[in-house]
Amino acid sequence: MNILIVDDSKAMRLIVRRTLRQAGYDGHEVEEACNGKDAMKMIHAKTYHLVLSDWNMPEMSGIELLTALRKEGNKITFGFVTSEGTPDMRARANEAGAKFLLAKPFSADTLSEVLRGIL
Amino acid sequence: MLINEDILREITQIAWQSIFGIPLESGHAPDARCGDDHLMSRVDIRGAWDGAVVIRWTPTVAHHAAQLLYEREAPTAEEVRDLVGEIANVVGGNLKGLLPGPSWLSLPVVANSEDRDTSQAKTVHEAWFQCAGEPIGVRVVELSRGAHKNPSSKEGPS
């Protein structure tokens, strides 16, 4: 499966990639985008099965990316990996069509739990 | 305010442990406040409460942290700045969830010196740590409503 990690922080992209590996998902192809706009271009050019996206990014935020994808009929599995996990943000994520919202910091076990049944 | 120094300490230590896989030891404020040679990473929380999380790093400890993450002897300056900014983002995001809402979080900003609006702001809570013998200071400051220098999130409050 193809996984796209979207985060403006290179450090966090590395952490998400590393945690995927630790959670046992190392057999998948993982690529990276540094904001929603770049992610959108990549999704238009290639099929991804899962997007793991930060919320707060320059150029295009994670929620803007998800909204744009759903608007064009793209039903790709989408999860947020963000430093904020307020009930309001979880509700907004859910309403926009996200499968989950994982708050940073997170462990391999937590990631594994949310990805069970998805990958 | 629903946070205190213990919570600030705990959030920072959990974030550190998760990112680096090693504990972050508590420490004490240095006698001279790191002098001029330091990095500051900061995120603002705006809304029902206006403030910022400001993390003070010596260049040595910031570089050491990036070496740990990237498992490389010589991380680039950009990698170092990105990492310290992201740590402020994680700590700020977690604190935001404990504060009264609605509120929103800015993107992280990293600078070689502290902005006037945070250096002169009232410190609400402060916690010090040490890594590789160097201090790391995490402060929560209260900002005035008019101080909007830090580029904020495009997002609305949550």
Distance between the termini of chain A: 8 Å
The quaternary organization reads as: heterodimer
Most strands sheet of chain B: 7 strands, antiparallel
**What overall form of chain B do the CA principal axes indicate?**
globular
Kindly describe this structure.
- The complex is a heterodimer of chains A (119) and B (158).
- Chain A has a 5-stranded parallel beta sheet with strand order 2-1-3-4-5, sandwiched between helices.
- Chain A has a single domain, classed as Response regulator (Rossmann fold, 3-Layer(aba) Sandwich).
- Chain A has 119 residues and is α/β, with parallel strands linked by helices.
- The longest helix of chain A is centred in the first third of the chain and has 13 residues, at 10-22.
- In chain A, strand 3 (50-53), helix 3 and strand 4 (77-82) form a beta-alpha-beta unit.
- Chain A is built from 5 helices and 5 strands.
- By secondary structure, chain B is an alpha+beta fold.
- Chain B has 4 helices and 7 strands, in the order H-E-E-E-H-H-E-E-H-E-E.
- In chain B, strand 6 and strand 7 (134-142) form a beta hairpin.
- The longest helix of chain B has 20 residues, at 77-96.
- The model of chain B is unreliable at 149-154 (pLDDT under 50).
- Chains A and B meet through helix 1 and helix 4 of A and helix 1, helix 2 and helix 3 of B.
